[in-house]
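Support request, please re-run this one:
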Amino acid sequence: MVREVNEGSSELNIGGRFLAFDRPQFFTIFVVLAILATCMIVYYVKQKKYKVNEAPKGFVLLVDMYVGYIRSLVIEILGPKFEKLTPYFLYLMSYILLSNIIGIIGLENPTSSLTVTLSMGIVTWIGTQVVAFKYQKLSYLKTFTFGIKNKKGNKIPLMINPLEVISCITPLISISCRLWGNIFAGGLVVSLWFYFLGYVSQNVPALAMFNLLAGLTVAPIHLYFDLLCGCIQALVFTLLTMVYWTLAKGEEAVEQSESNVVVIDKKQPVVNKQVLVK
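Re-run finished. Output below.
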């Protein structure tokens, strides 16, 4: 059962308890998910109609180029072993991008809510810890301690290093607040400008019927704060997630993924200094 509490807000009865969803971002989240699901279905249907030797075009070609771009970023930054995570970064980038630019049609940006950006930041932070323990094992815990080295060069932990603990938590706050702050500030600037235009229209009779200032400035403001900044922030969040996961692998793993070593046969000519002759 849904009951109305105040104007524009309501509560949903779940097991005798009422769950309030009076935030405009709550509705926009489902709009974003619906748009993404629709695009996936349309792509699947159109892609199935193509023959094996037929070149894609239109919407299918656009999606293929987008998927290929995300895949190349994953391989270049994280390494070929993480190629299977391409669908995750593809959805992450698409969700943030659509959430940032949906304000153009008058809906509230989901990423203007700190809860949304913090949730995505927590996922990124948890993924960072998982990658760190996977590649560095328990030696990852030594990075949070002060220690001395013995004769063999091994580090003996003595006490916890508070700076390392803080630096571990800082990316969670940084990546969440950066996205939220930019989108929230952009929406605030756009709202203030609309209020200013309304004030001018009410107090200047000559502009009451035809506000030339609004017609000339609204489109550029939306293009900058909603479209341009939205695309940049979506890309920044995705790239930072990849970089954090890459750094969590440790120095040895990073050097291994960055060195593109190819094993060839003796009869084949060497065309690159990084090629290892077997």
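The beta strands are 2-4, 10-14, 17-20, 145-149, 155-160, 263-264, 276-277. The helical segments are 24-49, 59-77, 86-101, 114-136, 162-203, 212-248, 251-258.
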